[in-house]
Amino acid sequence: MNEAQQLSGPEEAYQRALNVGRFVIQRCGDCERPVFYPRTVCPHCGANKLSWFSPIGEGHVYSTTTVRRDQEDGGDYNVCIVELAEGVRLMSSIRGILPDRVIIGTKVRIKVVKSEGKGLVICEVK
Fold this sequence. Notes:
A six-stranded mixed β-sheet has the order 6-5-4-8-9-7. A three-stranded antiparallel β-sheet has the order 2-1-3, with no helix packed on it. The protein folds into two domains: 1-54, no CATH class; 57-126, CATH 2.40.50.840. The protein has one helix spanning 9-19, and strands at residues 25-28, 34-35, 50-53, 58-67, 77-84, 89-92, 94-95, 107-115, 118-125. The chain contains one helix and nine strands, in the order αβββββββββ. The protein is globular, with a radius of gyration of 16 Å. By secondary structure, it is mostly beta strands. The termini are far apart.
């Protein structure tokens, strides 16, 4: 990411947590519903009382696809939407299983890994 693409606000706070190995999401102080992707205003009720918390870190595959690449370009990989136990959804990939073996409903756990010096959320089969 170059300087023109620097994060700010809640996205920056989220990335800082990932960079030290912590996965956090927000919760609204008014309606108490979890929120993901990081925001300044609750998408459910419009309140601006969002705070951070560490979710359980478990969920299931809601949607999945396999991205096909030549072996010399790194081979195929999985992209999925994961629904966490808290009810929010996020995009990730699942490691430890062949990309075309990932199916909807697969139980996963969240893991934070480093990629190019930054924290990144991936999933592993539970």
